[in-house]
Predict the structure.
Amino acid sequence: MGDDLSTKEMGWVLGRSPAVVRRMIQGGELEAERIPGAYRIPRSAAIRVARERVEREAGRTLSDTEIDRLIDQVIATNEART
């Protein structure tokens, strides 16, 4: 997978809509780069936010590699559905 995620992809990772992800970016909760007509979220920021969610909701600690693999799986699964 690529290094950056779209708001749609990040929404899949978080179980939220792209609009919620954009609000997180605008509110400073999530790092992103503004490009014409969109945002790109660095993989490192996606890993950090995904880790926080896993730790908070599942009470588990995962390595960066495990989180990265989960992100790729979520994106691949959702892309296959669309």
Summary: The radius of gyration is 12 Å. Residues 76 and 82 are 10 Å apart (CA to CA). The domain at 4-81 is CATH 1.10.1660 (Multidrug-efflux Transporter Regulator; Chain: A; Domain 2).
